[in-house]
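Researcher: Here's the sequence for the chain we discussed earlier.
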Amino acid sequence: MPFKVYLSGEIHTNWREEIISGCKALNLDVEFYSAVIDHEASDASGDVLGAEDKIFWRDHKSAKVNAIRIKTLIGKSDLAIIRFGDQYKQWNAAFDAGYCAALGKPYITLHAEKTIHPLKEVDAAAMAWATTTEQVIEIIKYTLTH
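Model: Thanks. This is the structure I predict for it:
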């Protein structure tokens, strides 16, 4: 049975591909899930429920439609990786980390040292804080081989 990993957070770099290809290169039995990384598709996910004049209501509907997917996939996962990038604030990733913490779902944060302070509460509930995708891959390898 594959180890299931949910990849949450920053969408502007290839960190997901690095983790997926790194685990594949080690022949680790891992199945990956991810948040929708097409920003426009994510923002429009609630449009099927009808057009809105106010951006709040469009965002509100889309957040709820996205939450169906996110909550389902986090629930199916054995571990979540929560990536905080340098360029944007990932409020959704912080929410995903909080959801994992509430469920007792283990998660690893992945971010640079310069964001230690603003993420101190998120990191405090994490099982590990990593600064590189290589570290994440090694933790997954350790989890599956020892």
